[in-house]
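Two quick folds needed for the group meeting slides. Do the first one here.
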Amino acid sequence: MTLEQAPHLERRKDLERRAVIDVALTLAELDAAWGDYSYAIEHLDAANRLSGGSLAHRWSNRRRRWAYAARGYRD
């Protein structure tokens, strides 16, 4: 195992961190469902920071839609 892989594997084994990330993602989805896109983005960004940036790619489309909706644009 290289040194670059070690932090990634440690984050995956940290069950408390994973639970906090899941809560942040759930809050993001709830806020978006309620139309509060600014808070949804804040929760999504917090989850991404906690995950070490591993969520950015998978959630990029949803984040982009929420950012447009926060500015008043519709799909």
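Then this one, please, same format:
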Amino acid sequence: MGCLLLNVLADCKKNHPTFVIHHERQVHPMEYSAAHRLANEIRQSEEYTTYHRLKEDVMADETQAALIREYKKLQVQLQMAAMSGQQPDSEDMQRFSGISALLFGKPEISQYLLAEMRLQQALADIFKIITDAADLDMQLPV
């Protein structure tokens, strides 16, 4: 019986490659062409093109790039501490404040970081639309 079932599944996959066999029923795979069109639209958006142009300019300077990487690393550490209910490390807070002041004090870096935030917000909005359509609750527990 097991060999017969394997032969039937193999034959079905060969003759109907667009179907996925799942627990003895045929299911159409999800269509991804709309997602690829959306990815294309994102790459052509003003938010994306502005962000990548500014990123290229800012990250060309290795000192600026290193400061931005440190800023983002500290930002994540502080956010993780806050989300886990821990008190953020005071040294990290001071370091983050100092780097933030330095970075946002330079107009080209400030423009880059703001462009990055705008792109992140647009992507978050898109993600919310998609998860709402799928009726998924993606909220973090409070």
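Slide caption for protein two: The beta strands are 20-22, 25-27.
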